[in-house]
Amino acid sequence: MNITRFSDLALRLLMYLGSRAEPIEATVTVREVATLFNVPYSHLVKVVHQLGQRGLLITTKGAGGGVRLARPAESIRLGEILRITEFSDAVIDCSEQRCPLTGACLLKGALDSAYAAFLDTLDTYTLAEVARTPRLQKLVTLKI
To answer: Can you give the CATH number for the domain in which 84 is found?
Structure first.
């Protein structure tokens, strides 16, 4: 099971914000995070936009602007993040290319079931829990 680069960037950004001393009040710039994680600024802007539209981030423009968590990190589940950032809930798309097994294949159902179990497992973890990584905490302390 692979997640998209988009989801990877979303998770990294949210973990970084969740690891701050006051995650709800800590505002960081997209450029700061892009530089910190060595990721393209333009890609991270797209991630921030979607997370803002879906209510996970508050974005502020202008001087002193940036992004911050919209809710406490304890209330954000990892499965919720992936449901927002993964653009499909199907592991395979049987309609993209005509398949002679359509309607008689058990593979798609098995894969869909496994993906649902994957997300259910991620729902047992909060952003606050995964943001407690000691190395991340050290990185945040160095950047303040």
So the answer is: 1.10.10.10
